[in-house]
Amino acid sequence: MWVLQRLLEQSEAKPVFLIDEAHNLLTRSVDMFSSDLRLASLEAAQAVMAGSDRIDTALNNLISELQRLVSENPRDTSWVAKPEAIQAVVSSASDWLITMAAENDSAQEASILEAWWDTIRFVECFQSLTDDYEIIVEQSPETRILLACVQPGQQLQAMFDSARSIVAFSGTLRPKRWFEARLATPSDAAWIGFPSPFPPDHQFTAVVHDIDVRYHQRSHSMPRLVRLIHEVTTAKRGHYLIFCPSFEFLYQVAAHFEAMHPMFKTVTQGEGDTLQAIQAFRNAFTSSEPTVGFAITGGRFAESIDFSGDQLIGVVIIGLGLAPRSTLGDVISQRTNEEGRVNGFDAGYRYPALMRTVQTAGRVIRSASDRGVVLLVDHRFRSTENLQHTPAWWNVKFTPSHAIQPALADFWRE
Predict the structure, then answer these.
(1) Which of 43, 259, 277, 329 could form a disulfide with 348 if both were Cys (CB 3.0 to 4.6 A apart)?
(2) How far is CA 63 from the centre of its chain?
(3) Separation of CA 118 from chain center
C-alpha cells in the first residue's frame, strides 16, 4: 500500500479503486500507517558494524536511548507514552540517518539497510503524528516503540479522495456500523447486500455449547473434544479442518487426536512453516485419502484459499477466537468508546474474532453444489450478540455434543 500511496501522489489521473477482501482493510491499514523501531533490528546492524571495525556513535546512542526508555518502566510489558517521552530516541534516530546519508555507501549490509529504512519510516511517521495515533512502548514479545495508527479512517480517506470512485467488496463486512466508524466511510456511501447463492440446506451449521473450551478448562474438556472431532470426521469420509485460536491449543488438540486415532491421516499447521510445508499441507486436501487438518482460525488456511468440491467437507471451529488482551487492542477499545458509535470491547476484540470465524467457516461451501459441515464449539456462539453477526443464510442449530452424531447422519443421508 505504500507503493500505491506514492503512485497516487505522483499521478494526475483519478483512478477507480476495486478493493477485494475489503474486511482486511482495517488491520492492513493500521499496519500500513503505523511504524515501529525495533531494538533487535538496530542491534543486528550494530553487530555488523562492530565486525567490520566500523564505529557508529550515532547508532550506539540510538540504541542506548531506546534501552534507557524501556528501563524506565521495567514492570510493564507495554505502555502508552507521550511524544515528549520518546523525543530523545527520535533525535538520536535523526542523527543516525544524517550519518548514514553522509556515508552514501551503496554496498551496505542487509541488516544495516533494514535498520536504516525502519528508522527513516519511524522518523517520518513521528514528524507527521496526528490524534489518530498512539505511541506504544513494548518489551514483549520484543522491545520496540510502535507509532500505532489506531484510527486509520482519516488516513485512508486522504488517499481515497484522489479516486474517482471506490468499490469495496467482501462477504464479511459486518456489522456495518463498525466498519463505518473505523474506516470513516462517507455518509453517502452506498452499502449493498446480496443474498447468498448457496442453498442454506447444503451447510449443516451447529453450535456445540456444552464443551467448555475456555483456557482453564481445556485439559478437562480434551477427551470430549477429541470424541466430537472423531464423530464429525467419521460421519462421512472426506477431508476436514479443525481450527483453534492459538498454536499452543492447536498442538494439544492435534496430539491428543493422533494418539487416540492413529489410523487417521493428519496434517498440522506449523507456527514457522516453510513454503514447502505450506504446500504439503495444501496438497493433502487434493489426495484421495481422507485427511484431518489442524490449523489456526483466521490464519493462512482460513482465508483466500479455495477448497472446492470434495477437497473440504467440514470444519470444526473451536473457541470464539478472541485475541489476547494487548495495549493496542485496549487503546482501540478506549478510542472507540470515546467516540460512542460502537462498543469499545466489540471494536477491539469481539468483532475481529467473529470476522475471523465467518471467514474460516467460509472455506466449506465454495459453490452451489458443495455440501458440508460447520461446527462452532463454544458456548459463547450461542449468545445473540455473537450469532447476529454471522451470515443470514446460516441455519444455525444449537446441538449438544451427544446429539451431533445422529444429526450428521441425517444431514449426510439427505
Answers:
(1) 329
(2) 30
(3) 22
113 in Cβ contact with 27 (< 8 Å): no
**Secondary structure percentages of the chain, helix, strand, coil, to 5:** 50, 15, 35
Whose cell is 488438540? That residue is: 253
Chain Cα centroid distance, residue 117: 25
What string of pLDDT tens digits covers the 414 residues of the chain? 555 566 566 667 788 889 998 999 988 999 999 999 999 999 998 888 876 666 788 899 999 999 999 888 877 889 999 999 999 999 999 998 888 777 756 556 788 888 889 999 999 999 999 999 999 999 988 999 999 999 999 888 888 888 888 899 898 888 988 998 888 888 888 999 888 888 999 999 999 999 999 999 999 999 999 999 999 999 999 999 999 999 999 999 999 999 999 999 999 999 989 999 999 999 999 999 999 999 999 999 998 788 888 999 999 999 998 999 999 999 999 999 998 889 999 999 999 999 999 999 999 998 889 999 999 999 999 999 999 999 989 999 999 999 999 999 999 998
State the angle between helix axes of 327-339 and 176-183 in degrees (0 to 180), rounded to the nearest 10: 100
Between CA 200 and CA 217 the distance in angstroms is 34
Buried b / exposed e across 81-117, counting CB within 10 Å, b at 16+?
Answer: beeebbebbbebbbebbeebeeeeeeebeebbebbbe
In what side-by-side order are the strands of the sheet with 265-268?
A: 265-268, 291-296, 240-244, 314-318, 372-377, 203-208, 396-398
> Strands 240-244 and 144-149: what pairing?
unpaired
Classified as helix, coil or strand, 373 is strand
